[in-house]
Amino acid sequence: MKKIIFKKLFKDITIFFLFASSAIALIVWVIQAVNFLDFVSEDGHSFKVYFFYTLLNFPKIMSRILPFIFFITIFYILVLYEEKNELLIFWTNGIDKKEFLKNINMLSFLFVIVQLIFTVYVVPATQDKARSFIRSSNIDLFPTLIKEKRFIDTVSDLTIYVDKKDEYGNLTNIFLKDGVGDKTETIYAKSGKIVENNNKNYLKLIEGKIIKKTNTDITIFDFSETDINLSEYSTKTTTNPKIQELKTSMLLHCILSFYNKNIIFSNDKFLCNDSVFKSAQQELLKRIYLPIYLPIIALIGASLILRNKDYINYTKFRFKLFIIGVLTIVTSEISVRYAGLNIKSTIFFLIIPIIIYIMGYLFFINQINFKKKN
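Now predict its structure.
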């Protein structure tokens, strides 16, 4: 009978969690997808790149909201059970509150495993895959970026200015500057047009001048027609992998190498040195150790069973637990930002969730024993 009762509880928790997390993640994803429209409107990437980039950010959103949704789920289901008197079924079937907490803890450890799978494997892989779409893409929508009387600097080391642009894409009085520093190439043309050849964009210029500057030398010559291959220019969008996009094994290798007499670890994607070591350590702690807060969140939510709805301050008690749960989640997010700054902060980050759980567990047991005596 006990197994059937807990099976129903876990089923209700799982269903509500999947529904709530999917709904919240979808809302966040849509909002984020709107912000990513800059890839098309400003950076000139195709809608295909935009779609896959935003889609691959969905696992990251799920992993970020998982702790909060997990707490809300535990809290909501237990409040619902109390309001419907379904918690009485547990107590009348010989299930004590310690056993109830034990089963909630077991469920929380399953969610810890799920969160670790997301943070350690899925999220870094999908984030790196999303960045790879940016690396491999060219500026497919360059023609739409050209506007009249505006300086366009979407691509690296290239600035374009067009005086007029008609509905057919014909350009008038075109100014281009290629390069920075002592080596630059300035081009002026009376007219031009962006044409496509073999899936590449070319800027065809007619009647103009090219001014090449190399250190102190300046060369000027006229042309009647010339083509500039726009696909040779790269976007300004960041293409180098970020710490969050690196494999967990790579971050672990970096940290172990650094502690081993400060040996510098590097590969074609990542250089581990003093400047990135702290960030790498923080990211690794966030992936591996931060999920340990889930049992704490479950313990706070399960503390609802310490009082029933007939308790005179039940609403106030429920509100306090909710605030404590939210503050715990916020504390976990804040603490990881300071982890890795030095040895003391790292040790503090590693110890604080253990202390919080022990204190919460002792409070839970103390409340049960107190009620039994009275």
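The mean pLDDT is 80.
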